[in-house]
Recover the amino acids of this structure.
């Protein structure tokens, strides 16, 4: 009798191993998929943390990038050349007569000139005021774009003789 019992037990074990249920198949598929997702999220999170720690603080380098972009834009708007001069005024300094009212706190004057193609001499000379150098450069670009628009309108206009 003991032999028959052992045989029955072995038969039951073999049947369970040879015929997996649908739940067991789903589990064999789900575990590696979930593991891959968790591993991907962990690696992505570590890369993000590493990138965030190594990223320079906003400030001088960010300002340099913005300035470079603004200079490139101005060079596109003035293909024959341009020149700019920035003047910073201390709050204690007396501002020139063309400065905005004191309440606006514009302490940066930017004088810019578009240069002539042939002579290299200034053709257009303007001054803009702003609270910061970056804002003054942005105002310079807006000023140049306005000039460009007016030039296009003037070229398209029909003038009587």
């Amino acid at each position: 009798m003991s032999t028959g019992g052992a045989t029955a037990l072995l038969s039951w074990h073999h049947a369970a191993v040879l015929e997996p249920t649908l739940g067991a198949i789903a589990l064999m598929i789900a575990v590696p998929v979930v593991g891959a997702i968790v591993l991907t999220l962990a690696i992505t999170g570590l890369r993000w943390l590493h990138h965030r720690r190594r990223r320079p603080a906003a400030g001088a380098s960010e300002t340099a990038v913005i300035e470079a972009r603004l200079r490139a834009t101005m060079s596109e708007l003035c293909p024959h050349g341009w020149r700019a001069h920035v003047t910073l005024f201390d709050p204690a300094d007396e501002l020139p007569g063309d400065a905005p009212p004191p309440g606006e706190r514009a302490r940066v004057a930017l004088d810019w000139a578009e240069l002539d193609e042939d002579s290299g001499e200034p053709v257009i000379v303007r001054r803009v005021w702003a609270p910061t150098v970056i804002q003054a450069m942005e105002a310079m670009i807006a000023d140049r774009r306005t000039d460009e628009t007016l030039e296009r309108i003037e070229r398209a206009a029909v003038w009587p003789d």
